[in-house]
Amino acid sequence: MIAMTAPSTSHLSRLCLAALLAVALPGLLVVGVPFLADAPLAGAKVRTPERLDGVAAERLARQLGLPLQLRRLAAGDAAAQLASGAVDLVLADRRDGAPLAAQAPGMAVVGTGYATAPKAVIRGDTALRRWQDVAGHSVCMADAAQGAQALAQRHGATVRTYRAPSDALVAVREGACDLALIDDAVWAPLMKFPEWKKFSATLAPQGPRAELVWVAAPADAAWLAAQMQAWRREGAWTAMTAKWARDVAFDVYLDQEVPDCHG
Fold first, then answer.
1. All structural domains of the chain with their residue ranges
2. CA-to-CA distance for 157 and 134, rounded, in angstroms?
3. For 67, what's the count of Cα atoms within 13 Å in the CB-facing half-sphere?
4. pLDDT: is 125 or 239 the higher one?
5. Which residues neighbour 206 within 8 Å (Cβ) at sequence distance 6 or greater?
6. pTM value?
């Protein structure tokens, strides 16, 4: 066996060191995210969250061999929290390529390549065909879907928010809402399920796209960028959106088809 000399690690960040040595370093990977749903109450139904922040952070933590802790954090607080070591990385939204540097001075911004915009889920027999038709109608979405809320409000809709996207989708299926808004990246995989064909009407794309980006210490930027390139090559985001669609479809199925065993 050929003996290998360990590389000098004095210039490496903790994350790069974990990846290089393929060992779990002490502690946690702490990732700041823009929205973190409250934990469900005892006995409450578990729901798939709106965003893929947690899924992306979990994937990165597995690569690093570190346990994960998510912490809600606004993009404007990223620089201070990263500099203090309170968080290792931050996930944030960059809308239509708008720079985040002013909100995180001295930190690197690394794009994930995963960008979304709101897309409507509507019954096929509805008269709603244009955004102008939405005024005065009820539009449902998850609490975390802030871009969708702003879009619906701009068109004069009555906005109703729910803890999870499946709750908003159930409301549409049951007629409590005229349409729901979910991310376009997950719309297509959801509509592949036969039970959603009846709800595959939609509206023309509108509103800014938001790319999910990492905000990180400069020492982590090159390594993170390489990981994001690898994720794109491997189809990681396609796999994550497909799983989201399966999970949400199952959440809705449980609500509509399975009787409450506790009732």
1. 14-115+209-257, 118-199
2. 6
3. 4
4. 239
5. 117, 118, 131, 151
6. 0.86
Query: Which token pair is 157?
Result: 């809709």
Residue 79 or residue 181, greater confidence: 181
Q: What is the DSSP string of 14-56?
A: HHHHHHHHTSPPSS-EEEEES--PPPPPTTPPP---SSSHHHH
- Pairing relationship of beta strands 89-95 and 29-33 according to DSSP bridges: parallel
The CATH number of 14-115+209-257 is 3.40.190.10
pLDDT in tens, 210-230: 999 999 999 999 999 999 999
- Asked if 168 and 142 count as a contact pair (C-beta separation under 8 A), the reply is yes
Which two three-digit tokens encode residue 106?
């001295």
Q: 14-115+209-257 with 118-199: one CATH topology? A: yes
Q: Does the structure show a pLDDT above 90 at 52?
A: yes
Residue with tokens 């102008």: 132
At residue 96 the predicted structure's pLDDT band, cuts being 50, 70 and 90, is: confident
Q: Give the confidence band of 57 by pLDDT, cuts at 50, 70, 90.
A: very high
Cα(236)–Cα(230) distance, rounded to whole angstroms? 8
Q: CA-based diameter of the chain, in Å?
A: 73
Q: Could you please state the CATH topology (level 3) that the domain comprising 118-199 is classified under.
A: D-Maltodextrin-Binding Protein; domain 2 (3.40.190)
Residue among 242, 243, 251 at smallest CA distance from 166: 251
Averaged pLDDT of the chain: 86
